[in-house]
Amino acid sequence: VVACLIIVLALVWTMPEIPKTVKTGEICLPSEIGPLKCGSTADLLHGYLEREIATKYDEVKRQDHKKQENHLKKVSARLMNIYDKSFWEMKPAAKLTGKEQPDLRKTDSNADMVPIREWCNGRELYDTKGFIRYGIRYRNGRLVVPVDGTYFIYSNLDFFESCNPSSGLPDIKDINKPIKHGIFKFNILEGEENELVSNVQPHTISTNRYYNSYSSYVSSLAELKAGDELSVKVSNITY
């Protein structure tokens, strides 16, 4: 009994002193800067409840985040057991090989660069090393991206041009116009086409005097959005 009385007296002694004069419409509540604060009932209650609710919300949020992490770990382990490592490798990917191109369109006759419009796709890919996987679509000579993300894009082409046997010079109208090769993207929502990566080479004199051959490889990391359409363009499709 003596011990209980001592504890009660200690609690009473350490409690903050309540102001002797509290007006009507006022209240005293614990504050963030001190033991007690007296003032307007509405204002103090609003602030006090706001602090308490924020604390409880943060705690609930932490618990929910922890539950989500535990759930993801369990689901990941179960999916890994079902699909092995291939589940995490199911990323959009495609590789196409070219084929004979159609005649040049009139609208492209004076263009600086023209798109390669035909690629092996569908069943034609069975006879090549190409593929289209996990959401990538082929449409009118373009690859359509299914989801936002960082993509590695590349293109490799070989060009051949005829030359004048007497001089070895390229048999073209304008030798000063270089050979261009690049990858472009288009999104119907933006309505404009942008160059992602390109390569430019000058014409050279043929060593065999009959034809020239050029190799061009371009690659880059690109931030793409769902719906972006990728195409390959060259300065002269007859090459």
TrEMBL record:
<comment type="similarity">
    <text>Belongs to the tumor necrosis factor family.</text>
</comment>
<dbReference type="GO" id="GO:0005164">
    <property type="term" value="F:tumor necrosis factor receptor binding"/>
</dbReference>
<keyword id="KW-0202">Cytokine</keyword>
<feature type="domain" description="THD">
    <location>
        <begin position="92"/>
        <end position="239"/>
    </location>
</feature>
<keyword id="KW-0472">Membrane</keyword>
<dbReference type="InterPro" id="IPR008983">
    <property type="entry name" value="Tumour_necrosis_fac-like_dom"/>
</dbReference>
<dbReference type="InterPro" id="IPR006052">
    <property type="entry name" value="TNF_dom"/>
</dbReference>
<dbReference type="GO" id="GO:0005615">
    <property type="term" value="C:extracellular space"/>
</dbReference>
<dbReference type="GO" id="GO:0016020">
    <property type="term" value="C:membrane"/>
</dbReference>
<dbReference type="Pfam" id="PF00229">
    <property type="entry name" value="TNF"/>
</dbReference>
<protein>
    <submittedName>
        <fullName>TNF</fullName>
    </submittedName>
</protein>
<dbReference type="GO" id="GO:0005125">
    <property type="term" value="F:cytokine activity"/>
</dbReference>
<dbReference type="GO" id="GO:0006955">
    <property type="term" value="P:immune response"/>
</dbReference>
